[in-house]
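> forwarded from #structure-qc
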């Protein structure tokens, strides 16, 4: 099966031109002006832009967390992602403390295998590093899971201490992997939560006030120091604020590269939402910050300090959020956005002139592919790359709403937001997966992507 996309404005991380894309089977065969080829199917993309399919490297699908499960399954989550132009996700496996990495991998495979619409991979969250876990790091790298997530918070469930962190870093470095981190000071946060609760301060506002900027800045600096000491490729997930980004900026002075991911919500939403009656919807960790932090993050993207905009998609339905109606510390942490990231960032970033179209492709697709060992199979529109791409109408105006979205969550964090630009067609490995909102592939089309060894620079 071959497919020709004609007359598109083709945008990649480093080019922007009008031309055609010829796809044969699952991959791109050629790209150029007025390609003289015969194809089984032709799509006229006049007036549209075409860019590589989004890669969201931070999602939590069907994950057990805080006494419940994130509400999107692999089926609903990867399908919602496709509707919004994200053709691949990297999900998190959580090791159970006291059990092996393999045990966790098998549990996650049991839920995801055969159930995905879009392509996917996993990070392995190491929550209990010991002599047994150490032996499994190499096995994970050989399976194609080359990034290892750590938590400096959620003590008693997910957090490891600094001794374990350094030992893990040495082993991951040896096996050619990367260490990623939820960088907040868990002990400080736990004390602040306990203090607020003892004072009867139980509303969502105190979720925010229990995780002040310093808790993230301190942990980001400490993590950077440990990564420098061990020389491991390192990545901070969901970075939210000026203090934390300054810790990374500081690390660049010794010529250290710490990769930084922020998430769409930290660019667009702020902590004033916690004062609302329904502030539970935005309870996530780290919390939303101040407008000055949003400015820092936009600048960080343009300065090259922030390489990726992800979502940390971890949806809970309202009924689940209500587990914490009388106590902020019981609200399951997380926010739904897997479907919205690409359209939000185009509308609020590119259309409003905050970032260039090339930067958009870099932070939504090319950098995730490069940093996590998938480039140029993914994140590229070059001959030989997987034909994962979005045909996007930059002029269509539409409104985000829970009534029309495809995520399995009964509210939208962006209800009523009017956006400019919408995904028209989404292709995954050469197949039109979404066409004008219609789904043209079956569940199970999504494949596990075996990732290669990571690099320390992009
Ligand atoms: O609130 C969040 N971010 N929930 C998901 C787990 C995590 O910390 O990434
Ligand atoms: Zn986290
Ligand atoms: Zn997360």
């Amino acid at each position: 099966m071959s497919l020709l996309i004609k007359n598109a404005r083709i945008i990649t991380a480093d080019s922007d031109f009008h031309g055609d894309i010829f796809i044969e089977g699952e991959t791109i065969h050629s790209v150029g002006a007025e390609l003289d080829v015969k194809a089984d199917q032709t799509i006229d993309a006049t007036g549209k832009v075409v860019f590589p399919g989004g890669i969201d490297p931070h999602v939590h699908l069907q994950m057990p967390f805080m006494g419940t499960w994130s509400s999107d399954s692999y089926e609903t989550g990867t399908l919602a992602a496709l509707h919004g132009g994200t053709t691949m996700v990297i999900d998190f496996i959580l090791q159970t403390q006291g059990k092996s990495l393999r045990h966790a991998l098998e549990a996650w495979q049991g839920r995801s295998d055969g159930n995905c619409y879009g392509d996917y991979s996993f990070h392995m969250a190491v929550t209990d590093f010991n002599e047994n876990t150490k032996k499994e790091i190499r096995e994970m790298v050989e399976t194609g899971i080359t990034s290892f997530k750590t938590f400096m918070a959620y003590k008693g469930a997910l957090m490891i201490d600094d001794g374990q962190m350094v030992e893990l870093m040495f082993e991951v470095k040896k096996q050619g992997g990367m260490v990623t981190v939820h960088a907040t000071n868990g002990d400080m946060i736990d004390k602040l939560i306990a203090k607020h609760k003892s004072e009867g301060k139980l509303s969502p506002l105190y979720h925010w006030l229990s995780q002040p900027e310093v808790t993230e800045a301190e942990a980001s600096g400490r993590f950077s120091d440990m990564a420098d000491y061990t020389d491991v490729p390192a990545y901070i997930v969901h970075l939210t604020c000026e203090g934390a980004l300054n810790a990374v900026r500081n690390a660049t002075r010794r010529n250290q590269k710490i990769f930084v991911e922020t998430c769409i919500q930290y660019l667009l939403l702020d902590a004033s939402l916690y004062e609302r009656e329904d502030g539970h919807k935005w309870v996530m960790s780290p919390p939303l910050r101040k407008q000055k932090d949003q400015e820092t993050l936009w600048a960080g993207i343009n300065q090259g300090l922030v390489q990726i905009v992800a979502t940390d998609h971890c949806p809970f339905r309202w009924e689940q959020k209500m587990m914490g109606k009388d106590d902020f510390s019981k609200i399951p942490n997380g926010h739904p956005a897997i479907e919205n990231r690409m359209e939000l960032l185009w509308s609020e970033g590119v259309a409003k002139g905050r970032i260039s179209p090339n930067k958009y492709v870099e932070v939504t697709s090319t950098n995730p592919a490069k940093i996590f060992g998938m480039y140029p199979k993914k994140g590229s529109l070059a001959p030989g790359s997987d034909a994962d791409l979005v045909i996007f109408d930059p002029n269509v105006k539409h409104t985000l709403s829970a009534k029309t979205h495809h995520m399995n969550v009964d509210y939208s964090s962006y209800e009523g937001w009017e956006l400019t630009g919408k995904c028209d067609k989404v292709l995954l490995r050469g197949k039109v997966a979404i066409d004008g909102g219609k789904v043209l592939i079956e569940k199970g089309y999504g494949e596990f992507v075996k990732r290669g060894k990571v690099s320390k620079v992009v």
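QC bot note: The mean pLDDT is 98. Residues 213-230 form the longest helix (18 residues).
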